[in-house]
Amino acid sequence: MVRDKDLSKRLSSLGFQLFETEEAEDANRTLADVVRSHDLRLWEGFPVVLANSVAKGLFDHDKTTDYLKTAIDRSYLESLIAMSLALYEAYGARFSWTKILRASLSDEKKDEINSFLKMFKRKSPFRLGSYRMSADRLMTVFRNYSAHSGPKLNDLLSEREELGLEYALSQVFSPKQKELFLKKLKGEKLSKTESEYFSRVVKKKVLSLANTGLHHLARRLVE
Prior knowledge:
Layout: H1 5-13, H2 27-37, H3 40-55, H4 61-66, H5 71-91, H6 98-103, H7 107-122, E1 126-128, E2 131-133, H8 135-148, H9 153-172, H10 175-185, H11 192-210, H12 212-222
Antiparallel strand pairs: 1-2
Helix pairs in contact: 2-3, 3-5, 3-8, 5-7, 10-11
């Protein structure tokens, strides 16, 4: 059983507190350790840790899977993700990344989402592999986190949406151009040199991005 003080500290840093800690830890290794623990108390916190990790831009599905050496634990990871997605839906927590996470699952695990969702709506116990889970306890843990851990998950998501914006900006602007773009957006004063560079270079890119026709064509290409 993987259950030690180090794991508890890492869980705490990702939103499921068993011990106080301020340390930033490897989210993917922590999630893998939670899976390997086969500890139902930790599994009840998995949806919290997963949501926090994804919202902070820390979760990498493949890396977490790579930490798991047995087929059964890799299967448990997928089932725990499916269970978490069902919990978010049952709770009414809407995250933009759930569709992407759902698409990463096999058809079998996608079917599990629907099964878990029925159990959450009924607040009935259910089986996850060979373990018996309490829908009511899972909902309670998630509710307590949402109510008492600072920003609500939806608020946290809104904040972390900036991570996707940062990435998109990095694809269009150089680091210096991105810095000037954000300074201008925040209404911060630019130096004379910065203002001239913004008008000469950055503004042209901004005008292109703001073009509705170009935006429409770009959307068609990525759909």
